[in-house]
């Protein structure tokens, strides 16, 4: 077990110093949260406390504490996720060995360690690794309440479930029915006492669930930041709306306009036809496509070259274009291409969605073994004195717990309209436990020539075939080798129970089969580590090892990119006593500047420009008071604050910065009257953020890419993006490359700076 934990530490932590800014949306919030307790409590995105991120703060609290201790670095904000990921592996072992023994527990812990999306998620400052830890910790205490028959552990377990809610809201409650059901069937007390115990536990659950969102909603809105992602400035509405039912039924924008989720069978909103996906500036950004070439940041350092033997996905999909036709499931109908999916590729609704190329290579390598293992273990632990086949033994009660985790989560991902592939880490603990226990029981049934002895060869052969399909998207020869070895090993596993008198000396075949089906997921899990991946949209797969290949994730540097040094120097020189360095449309533009300077930047529309966080009247008041002197437009459209933007363009002075990096760049001012005809963006987003077919981006990009992406145009250049500086502050004339093809600053880019101070002078 120590070796497994060391392996987990290596996979989750190695190369994490390459994280850059990690997910810059959350990293900017962490910078802000270290400035004051108010920002810390509400998870404010900006130091001035104008707007929050679109998730509750618990996971960010740990990251902010780490940043306060070690300073704000990519590795320091990711450190809590790494530690929680390693701790989750140990919790899996602890939860399994009490009822099933050490061998199944070690197998379960190993499977959890080697689940590709678990590795990728544990290397980011997203919330998912933290969520899994608190869910497992909750189960640990509920299990302890059953074993020791002590209520206080039950209360702690349900309280921790409330804490998990405040990590990622309703996503945590997908396993809540399993907790209730497990305690009901596992405790040897009367039903009245069970009701009383669960009633008290529910009170603890409610308290720890609601204490933070109620504290937000009961605070006067003028005394706290706007709740980012919500439509009514309410944390409860955010929890049960955007982060709740809309994940299942389809996402809505901050303006209330509904659009279908990615992968659903419904038609796309026509307004999103020209929308471009986000651009994740990274040292590992995906190479350009002919449709949407990335902008080339000036002053950036060259990209680190990967191995020349890097795999090439099929159809010439260099860089594994996320969500594009070259990638797996490039359309919502499911297409062909490299395994691994895209930021918006989740396959077609149906019972086999999780086995498809969009989601399968991240989570489903051993899903067949887990399902067959549940059947095997349920009958293996039947017990000799049972009157009915469905009677419960202590082991079967534990199996019901993990089946209660697997089934509803599997069902959600099979039918949900909006989620990202990396959310499927929710399945990892259940697959790990049922797979680990199942491998052990199938092995024992095979050796004992049980009626269920054929489950082992069926599991090995079917899993090898599924894995060969995934591997074939990158390595066709190795896929055939994997399939061939699967067939060769399965043949004696099928035949020996019928012809051999003693199978005790034949254990080499089952062991070989288990090793075989662990090879491919082990390599997939290794790819984020080798690539130094720390992505906004985490992923695993050989595309990460390509030169400039970023898979579907927006890699180191997060969603924002680097700052424009000319713009930054000018703003810092002329900020004066203004509270905000500048105002801009969305968080993707603001994040790099908050990270590099620690100063307040107002994201008027929140993450994607769709939040109605401030009215025109309120904005005018701030300008009149001198709290905002500059507005920076990234040349994007589709936000919800057109009244503010139109007022600025009509009344403010437009500032033109030269391409010089000097803080004393020459500037010219001209009074803007009427609507502004800004130049089109000179750089489109890179494929790191995922390029849907024909430049169409799916709707629903807020927080962790949910909301409505604004439109942006692109040129036809096919130059490859250079590696941006790893320093958050940025050096040289790099331009901020945000969502929707937004670029900014001088040097021919589309960003426009407006001077607001003269409006009331």
Automatic annotation (TrEMBL):
<dbReference type="InterPro" id="IPR056785">
    <property type="entry name" value="YkcA/B-like_C"/>
</dbReference>
<keyword id="KW-1003">Cell membrane</keyword>
<feature type="transmembrane region" description="Helical">
    <location>
        <begin position="401"/>
        <end position="419"/>
    </location>
</feature>
<feature type="compositionally biased region" description="Gly residues">
    <location>
        <begin position="738"/>
        <end position="750"/>
    </location>
</feature>
<feature type="compositionally biased region" description="Low complexity">
    <location>
        <begin position="707"/>
        <end position="718"/>
    </location>
</feature>
<feature type="transmembrane region" description="Helical">
    <location>
        <begin position="450"/>
        <end position="471"/>
    </location>
</feature>
<feature type="transmembrane region" description="Helical">
    <location>
        <begin position="195"/>
        <end position="214"/>
    </location>
</feature>
<dbReference type="GO" id="GO:0016763">
    <property type="term" value="F:pentosyltransferase activity"/>
</dbReference>
<dbReference type="InterPro" id="IPR050297">
    <property type="entry name" value="LipidA_mod_glycosyltrf_83"/>
</dbReference>
<keyword id="KW-0808">Transferase</keyword>
<feature type="transmembrane region" description="Helical">
    <location>
        <begin position="477"/>
        <end position="496"/>
    </location>
</feature>
<dbReference type="GO" id="GO:0010041">
    <property type="term" value="P:response to iron(III) ion"/>
</dbReference>
<feature type="transmembrane region" description="Helical">
    <location>
        <begin position="154"/>
        <end position="183"/>
    </location>
</feature>
<feature type="transmembrane region" description="Helical">
    <location>
        <begin position="508"/>
        <end position="526"/>
    </location>
</feature>
<feature type="domain" description="Putative mannosyltransferase YkcA/B-like C-terminal">
    <location>
        <begin position="567"/>
        <end position="651"/>
    </location>
</feature>
<protein>
    <submittedName>
        <fullName>Glycosyl transferase family protein</fullName>
    </submittedName>
</protein>
<dbReference type="GO" id="GO:0009103">
    <property type="term" value="P:lipopolysaccharide biosynthetic process"/>
</dbReference>
<feature type="compositionally biased region" description="Low complexity">
    <location>
        <begin position="281"/>
        <end position="320"/>
    </location>
</feature>
<keyword id="KW-1133">Transmembrane helix</keyword>
<dbReference type="Pfam" id="PF13231">
    <property type="entry name" value="PMT_2"/>
</dbReference>
<keyword id="KW-0328">Glycosyltransferase</keyword>
<feature type="region of interest" description="Disordered">
    <location>
        <begin position="253"/>
        <end position="338"/>
    </location>
</feature>
<feature type="transmembrane region" description="Helical">
    <location>
        <begin position="338"/>
        <end position="357"/>
    </location>
</feature>
<keyword id="KW-0812">Transmembrane</keyword>
<feature type="compositionally biased region" description="Gly residues">
    <location>
        <begin position="321"/>
        <end position="338"/>
    </location>
</feature>
<dbReference type="GO" id="GO:0005886">
    <property type="term" value="C:plasma membrane"/>
</dbReference>
<dbReference type="InterPro" id="IPR038731">
    <property type="entry name" value="RgtA/B/C-like"/>
</dbReference>
<feature type="compositionally biased region" description="Low complexity">
    <location>
        <begin position="659"/>
        <end position="676"/>
    </location>
</feature>
<feature type="compositionally biased region" description="Low complexity">
    <location>
        <begin position="264"/>
        <end position="274"/>
    </location>
</feature>
<feature type="domain" description="Glycosyltransferase RgtA/B/C/D-like">
    <location>
        <begin position="54"/>
        <end position="212"/>
    </location>
</feature>
<keyword id="KW-0472">Membrane</keyword>
<dbReference type="Pfam" id="PF24878">
    <property type="entry name" value="YkcB_C"/>
</dbReference>
<feature type="transmembrane region" description="Helical">
    <location>
        <begin position="126"/>
        <end position="142"/>
    </location>
</feature>
<feature type="region of interest" description="Disordered">
    <location>
        <begin position="659"/>
        <end position="761"/>
    </location>
</feature>
<feature type="compositionally biased region" description="Low complexity">
    <location>
        <begin position="688"/>
        <end position="700"/>
    </location>
</feature>
<feature type="transmembrane region" description="Helical">
    <location>
        <begin position="363"/>
        <end position="381"/>
    </location>
</feature>
<feature type="transmembrane region" description="Helical">
    <location>
        <begin position="72"/>
        <end position="96"/>
    </location>
</feature>
<feature type="transmembrane region" description="Helical">
    <location>
        <begin position="425"/>
        <end position="443"/>
    </location>
</feature>
<feature type="transmembrane region" description="Helical">
    <location>
        <begin position="103"/>
        <end position="120"/>
    </location>
</feature>
């Amino acid at each position: 077990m120590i070796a497994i934990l060391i392996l987990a530490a290596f996979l989750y932590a190695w190369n994490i110093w390459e994280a850059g800014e990690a997910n810059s949306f959350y990293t900017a919030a962490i910078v802000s949260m270290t400035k004051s307790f108010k920002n810390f409590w509400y998870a404010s995105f900006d130091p001035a406390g104008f707007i929050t991120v679109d998730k509750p703060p618990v996971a960010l609290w740990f990251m902010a504490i780490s940043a306060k201790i070690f300073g704000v670095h990519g590795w320091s904000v990711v450190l809590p996720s790494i530690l929680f990921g390693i701790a989750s592996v140990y919790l899996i072992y602890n939860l399994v060995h009490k009822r099933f023994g050490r061998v199944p527990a070690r197998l379960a812990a190993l499977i959890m360690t080697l689940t590709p999306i678990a590795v990728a998620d544990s290397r980011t400052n997203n919330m998912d690794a933290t969520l899994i830890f608190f869910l497992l910790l909750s189960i640990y205490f509920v299990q302890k309440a059953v074993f020791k028959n002590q209520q206080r552990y039950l209360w702690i377990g349900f309280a921790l479930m409330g804490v998990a809610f405040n990590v990622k809201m309703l996503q945590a409650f997908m396993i809540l029915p399993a907790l209730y059901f497990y305690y009901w069937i596992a405790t040897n007390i009367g039903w009245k006492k069970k009701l009383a115990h669960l009633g008290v536990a529910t009170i603890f659950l409610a308290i720890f669930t609601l204490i933070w969102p109620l504290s937000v909603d009961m605070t006067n809105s003028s005394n706290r930041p706007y709740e980012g992602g919500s439509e009514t400035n309410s944390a409860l509405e955010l929890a049960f709306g955007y982060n709740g039912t809309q994940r299942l039924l389809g996402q809505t924008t901050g303006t209330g306009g509904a659009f279908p989720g990615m992968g659903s069978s419904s038609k796309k909103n026509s307004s999103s036809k020209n929308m471009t996906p986000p651009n994740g500036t990274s040292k590992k950004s995906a190479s350009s496509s002919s449709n949407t070439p990335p902008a080339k940041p000036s002053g950036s350092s060259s990209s680190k070259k990967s191995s020349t033997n890097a795999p090439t996905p099929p159809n010439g999909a260099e860089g594994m274009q996320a969500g594009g036709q070259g990638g797996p499931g490039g359309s919502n109908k499911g297409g062909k291409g490299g395994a691994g999916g895209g930021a918006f590729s989740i396959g077609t609704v149906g019972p086999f969605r999780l086995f498809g190329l969009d989601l399968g290579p991240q989570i489903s390598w051993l899903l067949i073994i887990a399902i067959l293992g549940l059947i095997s273990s349920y009958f293996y632990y039947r017990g000799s004195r049972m009157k009915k086949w469905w009677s419960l033994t202590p082991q079967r009660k534990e199996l019901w717990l993990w089946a209660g985790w697997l089934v509803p989560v599997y069902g959600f991902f099979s039918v949900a309209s909006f989620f990202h592939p990396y959310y499927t880490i929710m399945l990892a603990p259940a697959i790990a436990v049922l797979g680990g226990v199942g491998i052990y029981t199938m092995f024992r049934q095979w050796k004992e020539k049980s009626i269920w002895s054929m489950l082992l060869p069926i599991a090995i052969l079917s899993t090898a075939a599924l894995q060969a399909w995934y591997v074939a998207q990158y390595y066709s020869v190795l896929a055939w080798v994997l399939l061939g070895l699967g067939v060769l090993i399965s043949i004696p596993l099928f035949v020996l129970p019928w012809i051999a008198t003693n199978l005790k000396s034949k254990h080499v075949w089952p062991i070989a089969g288990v090793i075989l089906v662990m090879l491919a997921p082990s390599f997939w899990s290794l790819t984020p580590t080798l690539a130094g991946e720390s992505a906004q949209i985490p992923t695993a797969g050989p595309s990460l090892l390509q030169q400039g290949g970023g898979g579907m994730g927006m890699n180191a540097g997060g969603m924002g990119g680097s700052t424009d040094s000319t713009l930054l120097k000018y703003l810092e020189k002329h900020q004066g006593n203004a509270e905000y360095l500048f105002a801009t449309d969305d968080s993707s533009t603001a994040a790099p500047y908050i990270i590099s300077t620690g100063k307040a930047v107002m994201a008027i529309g929140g993450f994607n420009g769709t939040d109605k966080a401030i009215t025109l009247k309120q904005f005018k008041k701030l300008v009149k008071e001198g709290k905002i002197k500059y507005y920076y437009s990234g040349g994007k459209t589709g936000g919800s604050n057109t009244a503010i933007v139109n007022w600025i363009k009509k009344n403010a002075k437009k500032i033109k910065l030269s391409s010089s990096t000097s803080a004393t760049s020459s500037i010219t001012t001209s009074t803007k009257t009427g609507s502004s005809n800004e130049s089109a963006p000179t750089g489109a987003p890179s494929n790191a953020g995922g390029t849907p077919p024909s430049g169409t981006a799916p709707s629903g990009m807020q927080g962790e890419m949910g909301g409505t992406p604004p439109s942006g145009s692109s040129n036809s250049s096919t130059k490859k993006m250079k590696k941006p500086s790893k320093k958050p502050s940025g050096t040289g004339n790099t331009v901020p490359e945000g969502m929707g093809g937004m670029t900014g600053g001088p040097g021919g880019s589309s960003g426009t700076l407006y001077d607001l101070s003269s409006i009331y002078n």
